Amino acid sequence: MGYVEWDCPKCGKRNREACNAWVYGSPIRNCKACNQEYFDNRWREIALEGVEPATKNPKFYLIATIICFLFTVACVIWLIADIRMMGSYPIKLAGCIFVGAIGTIGCFVIFLRIVLGYEEKQNQKYYNESLQRMNDKSYAKKLISYGYNVPEKFR
User: Fold this and answer.
1) Is the domain of 23 the same as that of 65?
2) CB burial class (10 A; 0-12, 13-18, 19+) of residue 12?
3) Which of 3, 21, 72, 149 could form a disulfide with 100 if both were Cys (CB 3.0 to 4.6 A apart)?
4) 46 Rama class: left (phi>0) / alpha (psi -120 to 50) / beta
5) How far is CA 101 from each of CA 3, 31, 46, rounded to the nearest angstrom?
6) pLDDT of 21-43, one tens digit each?
7) How distant is the alpha carbon of residue 4 from its chain centre?
8) Taking the chain, what is the end-to-end CA distance rounded to the nearest angstrom?
9) What percent of the chain is predicted at pLDDT more than 90?
């Protein structure tokens, strides 16, 4: 779960809202300060645009996991060599190891989510929510009024 921040185009106040990693949801937003409605094109109506292709491709995350792991191992070897030769090491190298380890773990977790089907379940949940919104004709008309491309079957 992440957060999206934006400034309201009507009143200029900063808004913050929880969102999923791919920012699926209604692009029609309401400002929390002035309660004005506006269009935010960062949000994706998944029933219309489909799921993000990266959520269905475990190979991408497996390759990223391997690359991050190899980067981390190379940095560890470099760190050990520096300690043996100089008795010290650059702190940036320790940072590289930390970042590489976090990248390895993060990519591996996403890989497992895709392979085990959790990502597909999550996508289906967001798709069903989107489909429910799209079945409301007034909502579809609002999207059209903001210039969003809505297929005929939802009009």
Assistant:
1) no
2) exposed
3) 72
4) alpha
5) 24, 39, 32
6) 889 999 999 999 999 999 998 99
7) 10
8) 32
9) 75
